[in-house]
User: Fold these one by one.
Assistant:
Number 1:
Amino acid sequence: MNPWLDGLLVFFENIRIVLVILLVILWGFLLTHGLLKRFLGDSITEADLLSLSSAGWVVPVLFLSLLTFGVSIIFNAVMGGIFAGAVILISFISLREKIDWPYFLLFSIILFASIILRLAFIKNLSLPLYFDSVEHYRLIDVIIRSYQLGTPIESSGSFYHLGFHFVSAGIAYFSHTNIARFMLVFGQVVLAILPTSLFFVVRRETGSIPAAFLSSLLVGFGFHMPGHLMNWGKYPALLSLVCILFVFGLAYMIYRPAQFGKRKVLFVLLGFSILASALIHTRTLILYGLMFIAALMTLIWSRLSKTYKLIGWGLLLTFFIALIYATQITPPLDLLFAGYLKNDSWILILVLVLVVFSAIHYTESTFFLFVWFFLCGLCLFIPITLPTYGIQTLLDRPFVQMFSCIPLSILGGLGLLGLMKTTIRLLPDLKLLQRFITLFIFGFVLLNADLHYKFYPSDCCNFVSRDDLAAFAWMDNNIPSDAKILAASTGLYVTSYESSQTPTGVDAGIWIPPLLSRPIVFAGRDIRFDSDEVHTDLCNQRIDFIYAGGTSQSFDFQQLDGLPEWYLQMFALPSARVYKIAACG
Amino acid sequence: MTDFLSKWKWQLLAFAGILVLACTVFFAASGWAIYRLRKPAEPTNVPDTFGYCGADLTDLCIVSFGRDVFGDTVVNLYVPVDEYPAFYLNIVRRSGDVRYDCTWNKTVETGVYCTGDPLNLEEGIQIQIFSVENDSLLAQGDFLLTAFFVTTSIVEGDKTATETSVGDSELTSTPTSASKSATKTPTPTKGTDSLEAEDETPTPTNTSSSYPSYP
């Protein structure tokens, strides 16, 4: 498989959706670019603006989506569309800030190449992956129905990550795009843009373009995150990561007032961005709180004497090692580092080497990143009880796993410049060697991406096979609209405090409610269908059918096939079966 | 860097322009080639040929064979987007032709299944795809049903297609649906160890929790 060719094929197959998404992003991008340029003037360079705007686009797009939805509900969807169009037009006319075209073209070429590479991921995918995406599909569908009916949202289930769902529903509705297809393409486009957002902070901190590029390269194609999020169907988390980088960039500008000034404007922008971020993913608020604490701790630490600074470093590293040990011995948190060790071992080794140079030359920034990273890890062990979700932790393992690539990538960038500085100091005459080091590190990361980076979905998380699609089409035509269907599940197992009674789907059966509008009831895969009590119980619960998908955690076909008088095989393909529960008396 | 960009601004602009032009030409050519290769099938004297699906889903292919409760054989197809109009299958057997009507998945338009009279194993068949609109032949393929040779879509890039030879007992195409062939009386077991240990009424909502989420 060639990701370039596959990506190109997907691009042309989905060219309309890709262009619609890019247009929306371009609007948000230009608006952010214009606003930042107007307010910050010469204190910010074009490269910085491009980097910041490639993260900031999400804020205006989200608020426009919310306003458009509001107008659509008050009046109708046509008025909503006109309103959105008018806002876009007015903002284009009123914010005609000059763009530096060489930069923009270079940026566009890099972005386009990145999009093509990322699109290869969805080549053979018919529906988004894992169980999270089902809920996102459902919520987007709920909002689109509101658009269609002109009525407020009616949803019986929980409603969360509003920001992502409103943005997605708005674009999908007005572009008449299939929700599943939209989710798949949107995720990949966002993923393609995300790395450029990291450029700004590293460049401003180091003044080095190679260091900033390395950080962007590491977060884009070095670590398995954030690309692996697509395997989990965590689209809101991905969008929140874009927002996190924008907030981080704005916070950085406030933290360095000598470089930027205009703090009032920055605070206003920061407020809106944090609000948008919270709407997309509530947990980002905790991340910002931790960022603030880390900045405060770093400020205090930086004012200590040299001896106390060293003690501070010693304490931090000791706590950090203790945290790593604690996560390693606490299932299921052990997957946090296991994920990085398994997928990114070579890049981790590189970053570990570079961290030493980062700590020597960018001591304060390195200390801040370590503290922030440590506090995030610590939140995995702090339980909180939420009314509808039960016992959770302040941050969960997938979120921390997603976020970890950010401090690691920044440390990589800082470390590169640190290494260059060290080389210049130790070997001032060997200029060729100095250049070779940078080229070697970039080559190493690119070679690693070529050899180890996964441009295609992992087999861990795809619940839906082609057979499932045929089974769904058959069920839609052949089983009653009010039929209740049994689907396989397992307990949610993300934090060490989680109640094992929270079921999550493990095969394509989880897609039945949103796609076929028929209710499902969950059962663990270890259910014994040959037990008369289980059969009676299924009858008592008035469950009509059993859906068995082709994943390893789904129901056992053989067990069901062995009891044809109780479980009548209705439809059978190698990876999908439908049974009718019979002999209920 | 800013100085560098200012100094080489026009050279960079020219380079970027050439790059954009080259990209435009390349992608336009690629797009045209793809369009030429994948334009909707039209009635011709030389219909497309197709076979079983491999790891990559690009062209029309058969994903798997199966059966339904009515004793009919199910043919599961992958159909590229916008390449084929509404169609039905004509299965050419020794005993004569059989028509299979096809149904599209509403959400994923590349998923199509067709059903019709049961097929027998050890039978050589030709599957022809005809347009519903004007009965023109769109594609055809020869299949030997010594066993139902099924291929399920593999998504991971570095994997090859898994092809499973499924024998009579698994997916026989003779009209022996579960209801007809079922002669075995269930021999239910009284509860299970795990359920008894919990001492509770077995309910379908019990879930196992040993497998970590988000691997």
Number 2:
Amino acid sequence: MKMAIQGIGLTAGFGSGIEALRSALQSGRAASVTGNGEQSAFRADVSGLAEFIPKRALRRIDHFSKMTLLGACLALKDADLLDADRSRTGVVIASGYGALKTTFNFLDSYLDFGYSCSSPTHFSNSVHNAAAAHVSIQLKTTAPSLTVTQFEMSVPSALLSAQQWLAEGRVDQVLFGAVDESCDVLTYCREQFFGSGEQGPLQPLTFAEQSAVAGEGAVFFVLNRETDTAPYGFIDGVRMGNYLVRPTILPEGDQLIVGADGHKECGRWYQQLLKGRKVAAYSPLYGSFPAAVGFDLAVAAVSQCDGKLYASPAANGSPAALPTQKLGGEQLSCLKLGPGGDYGLIRLST
Amino acid sequence: MSVKEKLKQVLIEDLNLEDVEPNEIEDDMALFGDGLGLDSLDAVELVVIVQKHFGVEIKDMEEGRPAFQTISTLAQYIEERMA
């Protein structure tokens, strides 16, 4: 069953809202790069949330959930549904890491002061489903809510659930989000594993080199069953599997947006599966994190809407990169590969 | 810094009362309900805050209930047990 994309809301290092994404695609780099290097460019600013939710209601809500709420509110605003009844709106959120910063803060307080001084608020926010709960409470979405975590495959896996809910008629609409956050502990760990590669610049199409830089952000889509109008087109289908176990055939005529994000370990799988095929990759705009597949999907939807495939940022003349081009009748697909041959393929159409 | 002043400061910081300044919290303002507007989850956080910042353990919520009325009653409770 096709899903119609009625609205998109997002926040990441390049800014918040669909126009910020368009600007980033046009300029080819994140808008908020500062003197602190690449990593600071990939932090999401959540100050825009004040437009939608009273400050006092946010005091127990952490950065992860604030990004989530901002993405959700912006998507509803984009779909002109901020004032709509949401009693039949489900919430599905994909996250590879969950609320990292709060989880580490909670663990720190436990280690430093013992269980009796561990903050209950930190604990409640550290569970993966906390963000979906905050969305449901603040936005009064009273249909089912779900958080799916399957590391790199979280987004396609969660999309399958959203599709199923719509097909079964359990909901009329799904607020579908992909969220991950970065934090100092993650940066430290990544530097231990990846060394200087973590300093950027992120070059996703240089598959054999480690260049990933941790990013963060939230992206949301308002999805419903196929209708006549869908401003950003449709999600035709979602396919998942492991191509080492069962070889997969990539759609021949599609333009591919790949979720390559500078991880050498995954890069070699892209190299093997793509066999020299030209593709697009946009991770230099938002950084490297499992839920970034959601941003690839947003880029694909915006490209469909604009009738144009944007050039891959930081491609540096890579022979693997598709050039900027007008989209004719061809479809767009987002391909994400995880370590070990896992894949997720999301196919769109106008 | 007095216990009252420190209490006001840590309440604002640890409970994320971003829209409140320490001088806006009066010593005899009710902490819960109409006063500062704290709720039952804050009460649990308050137990943690008192132990973490003042080393005073509130083992029994019934015992803590009278102390949780205002900044003055809480400061008095802490001072009596710190002494």
